[in-house]
Task: inverse folding
């Protein structure tokens, strides 16, 4: 085996058999990475440079990539059968169809990503392989990915802790009057210096700017008496972090400090509530009721999510929202992120941590810094 | 008008009329940003959080976004008619279909992005609006975007110059023995400190690691006598940079220095060849012949590309490859990037600059640093 195999093989086999698929055709960056082990960075910057990882339940597999990415793919992937197409001369969908025919899978029940594969490419594939039966397999592969292997858990833990420290260091260095952008830049720099290969997101807003769900940090200076919040993440060898922290500037009104303590209590009790068998909707309802118990107004459409590989599709099932019927399982890695908006007094607070679901309760993976009190920039 | 309007309005109108479209439905991050002016960062990290910018030739427009992104969208976009859906409760495609019906466009000829819109979403849209005629509009909107407004040119120039300086500074600071990753991190940090909002890519490889088209920079130390190459880019207010530079470590063999000089001569003569009316294929052929004139082996599938907004789809038509029939026009911003692999002697060189096509010839926008000689890390 040349490259790495990170996927949860027994779970993949079980799900493939349950879905009755002869093979599954995966095209999204996260699923190609997860199933092939190869990270093809241009998949994410050149939409037409398609890559396909095709696997049976028994891991008979073929990997179709642009010839420009062939040497890297052979080195990084555990799949020995790598085939390449010449960009713009051959159509990637034709190369995929040839591979499927050679494998004898062209009359089978084939899974595909209905929520990713572009309509035009799918049409081409259907025409090239008229005898195949195409079955949306988005939810199946997401469910496979949701239960992490022990090695994956360690990667998520490392990503989370590094990101926490990156945020904490930026807060410690910051002074009133610094711009939001300078603090946000420092967080991103810290994540890179801590080993991140790329950044997925980092948004820092203070005062009224923090009220937008995903504010763009600008030249706004940190102003005493205000609070702010950051939501940052990066990729570490394909494994992502996604954490939020709140911060105050100078002397902060007591009602803001009080709201922070209440929000953190809500977060911790919700994390404790994560148990195998409980659904995303049940966790959502628990959190919503915890807001009520703490006397804070609740206005969130979701309060957390599973954590995925790569940054292209970061929220993964189970999502903690009112419509999620997916039950938690041991081995899932879940972010809990209660958010509090006070539109009247114009401030917002956010805290997000990463937890591993186990049979004995949740274990917080983002445990490198102490978030009991609101950190104050002075 | 609340937010910014960056698009090339006369060209959009002309292309919409030529295509005979009643409206065009845009869903990809780059086209939503280009036509609405709003950058919705979660469009790129949450695939199912769809946003749609729908416009007629006369700029009657509607903007459909997730309610979480509504306040930001209203602030950032020039489109006054913003409609929102509640994630997971309502399907974004249903919200789009309602908006199209209310506008009376549901029986029209509607453009869509066949190479972006996922097959499942397109199927939902077709079922919701059975009387519409759907026409792939990917190439049309790419052609609109290809001719930049003067303001866009300034944004690309600023992005290019900042990126050049970021690379140059990292090379100046580097010492033999430093790791590839540390140099690459410095480049990324410099781009952020120079004003980048996010990074699109940065790959730095030396010695044999440089032979992969998109190497992952690792703990490999810079070794005297080798050459390396970096390809970096970032987003500055949605406008991207994409530049490559080569570098030597310590005392470098003369044949490497000589190959660099030849490669740069090839690059400059190809940039000079960029003139309105010449096709991407003609520029490719010129460059290929320039390799032959310089006595360097040529193995590139493409030698450059138009530069797009955002980093999700960075190569834009006209692409400089053998099959590109798109003629250059004044106002296009083109990257020229000859790459030289020497598989026998195991080294690679790359140089990429950004140029504006004008009626009087090409103007190099990435002109902040001098690339005449190979920079040497000592």
Result:
């Amino acid at each position: 085996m040349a490259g790495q195999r990170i996927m949860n093989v027994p779970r993949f086999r079980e799900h493939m058999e349950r879905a009755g698929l002869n093979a599954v055709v995966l095209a999204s960056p996260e699923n190609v990475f997860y199933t092939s082990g190869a990270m093809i960075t241009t998949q994410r910057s050149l939409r037409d440079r398609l890559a396909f990882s095709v696997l049976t339940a028994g891991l008979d597999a073929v990997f179709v990539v642009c010839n420009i990415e062939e040497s890297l793919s052979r080195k990084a992937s555990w799949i020995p059968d790598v085939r390449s197409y010449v960009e713009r001369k051959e159509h990637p969908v034709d190369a995929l169809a040839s591979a499927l025919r050679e494998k004898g899978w062209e009359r089978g029940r084939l899974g595909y990503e209905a929520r990713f594969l572009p309509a035009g490419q799918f049409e081409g594939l259907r025409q090239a392989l008229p005898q195949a039966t195409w079955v949306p397999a988005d939810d199946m592969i997401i469910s496979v990915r949701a239960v992490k292997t022990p090695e994956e858990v360690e990667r998520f833990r490392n990503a989370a802790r590094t990101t926490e420290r990156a945020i904490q260091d930026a807060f410690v260095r910051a002074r009133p009057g610094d711009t939001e952008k300078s603090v946000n830049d420092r967080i991103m720099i810290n994540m890179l210096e801590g080993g991140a290969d790329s950044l997925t997101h980092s948004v820092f807003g203070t005062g009224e700017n923090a009220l937008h769900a995903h504010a763009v940090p600008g030249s706004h200076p940190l102003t005493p008496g205000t609070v702010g919040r950051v939501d940052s993440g990066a990729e570490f060898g394909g494994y992502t972090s996604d954490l939020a922290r709140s911060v105050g500037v100078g002397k902060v009104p007591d009602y803001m400090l009080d709201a922070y303590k209440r929000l953190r209590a809500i977060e911790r009790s919700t994390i404790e509530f994560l148990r195998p068998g409980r659904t995303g909707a049940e966790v959502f309802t628990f959190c919503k009721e915890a807001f009520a118990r703490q006397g804070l107004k609740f206005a969130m459409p979701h309060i957390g999510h599973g954590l995925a590989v790569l940054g292209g599709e970061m929220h993964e099932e189970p999502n903690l929202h009112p419509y999620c019927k997916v039950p938690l399982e041991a081995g899932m890695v879940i972010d809990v992120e209660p958010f509090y908006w006070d539109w009247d007094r114009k401030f917002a607070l956010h805290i997000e941590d990463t937890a591993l679901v186990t049979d004995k309760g949740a274990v917080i993976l983002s445990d490198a810094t102490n978030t009991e009190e609101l950190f104050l920039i002075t």
About this structure: The radius of gyration of chain A is 22 Å.
